[in-house]
Predict the structure.
Amino acid sequence: MLLLTVQEVAAKLRLSVAYVQHLIRKGQISAHVVNQKQFIDIAQLDKLVSGHSFRENPDIPWDQYTTIQDFTSVVPITGRQVGNWLRQGRFPNTIRVGHQYYLSLRDIEHVTGLSATLFRSVAEKASSEGEQRGRRKSRKEAHKS
């Protein structure tokens, strides 16, 4: 049995140490305690990764969050500026899963003044327009060949 520390598991899954500890508290990962340190069996970790999507966490109201990419498609600022705002603490309810950040619509409303429903409708329109542009490009590329 190969055991990993919480820090090693966090690095392997590209998650924060706090989130791995949260998974342990919720019982989604079981940990062995040795000398007041938590260790996780690597076999259990492989099972967890293959059968679990962190995006499907039922405790988080995902309909109240959006990605930075969706946010920048609606609001005329760059991803770098959003990163600066994250470091300044303007989005305190942000969730990080791996390398992806999810911004709270409540925080977006507070920072930009856009209501959550207005933001959602504009974001959906922008994403559908982007998909249509992508289809047009692929048709053009197919026509060239």
About this structure: Helices lie at 6-13, 17-26, 42-51, 68-74, 79-88, 105-112, 116-144. The two ends are 55 Å apart (CA to CA). The mean pLDDT is 79.
